[in-house]
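Notes on consecutive records. When two proteins share a document, each keeps its own sequence and its own token line. Never mix them. Below: protein one.
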Amino acid sequence: MFVVPDDLQGRRADDVLQHWFVGVRRPALRRLLRGGLVELNGQPLMPWRKVRADDVLVLDASVDVDSLPCQDKRAKIEAPSVLYEDASCLALAKPAELPTVPGRQGEASVHDYLVEWFGARDLRVVHRLDRGTSGVLLFAKGREAAQALDVIFRERRIDKIYLALVRGLPRHDEFSVDVPIGRSVRGGRVSLRVGKGARDAVTDFRVVHRWRGFALLEARPRSGRQHQIRAHLMSAGLPLAVDPLYRGAAGVFLSEFKADYRHRRGDSERPLIDRLTLHAAQVSFASPDPAVTARVKVDAPLPKDLRVTLAKLGRFATHDAQENETASP
């Protein structure tokens, strides 16, 4: 049995089955549907039929799931750490290599792996982290919890803290960026503008540490717009150290800041980190679980790639804040 989650609302049946049976070839799933082997609310489901959230799909008992032909495109990814759990929600340490939910290309996502990791539990997406962003990711347990958490997010009764490794040196230890964010434009980047379609967006920043040419910032978004932190950092002249979409680089390399770096002949230098240098470090909120009376605070430790990068910066890129460097507000 598979309960259609909110984020698959309006999708075709053959799309939805690919989220149920991750890795199984699409033609095989269509054959199941055309053969009447999958039912929707007690009726045979056709491949082109669009489903709704909370629809119940049932696979005929005669189907041997293990014999379905698979496409070996999905890597085995170990279950992430459970950072917090109560009767209403589950908080995971999201791996950087996975998006929260599948994109248009149907790539593997955290959502796809939930059944594999945690069994047939009704875990629902309540917010998202970009592919490349690591850290705290919350899931609701069931419909009522999802609705309650959705209200908490919409009413901004949840506090989120991110750590961002950026290029450039902030002039001030604390600053805010108040720039409206518009709809996504061509290329996947949001627009920063005032006018039709733009929505208010404010992010508060605090400097945690400065190195030569790099800084670690704490970011506290007051709103939850798409790509908000990334776009606001770009507008402040402090792009994420790795973020090609918003004027960051494709990677952080040791040769950028280690003065006596020597390149091995015949080998290309590998980056210390080549994904978004953004980490969802903490969320705090009042849990919908009536048994939890204190405010919940969930912390996600830094993953290895960021820890190593910060350690290398600390060793080889020490920076006197009074040196002549280009500074941003």
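Protein two starts on the next line and is unrelated to protein one.
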Amino acid sequence: MAYLVKACKDDLKTLATELGLEIGEMMRVIDFKNLILTSKDYDEQFTKTLLETIIETRVQAERDEKEENDYKRKQEGLILELERMKLSMTATSTNTSATAAEKINI
């Protein structure tokens, strides 16, 4: 039962759903805990293992999402840097052409 203390509301809601329990929209953490513990088919070891799997899956999904967001941010930064370099090269090329034209006119 102590293993339920560490779980967040969404994890307990998922656990209750996986166990086939009826859940209400306004249920609180304590309501989910009581529902799970008083279930007629309650098996502590099975429930504990299932909850650990649910938590691991959620944490991995959060980690994957963070990595994807970091990758996208880095990619966007590289694209911006490339655009700045292109603009810089264009400006340098324009200045060089203008300087060459001035020398020819002199």
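For the record: The helical segments are 9-18, 29-37, 44-105.
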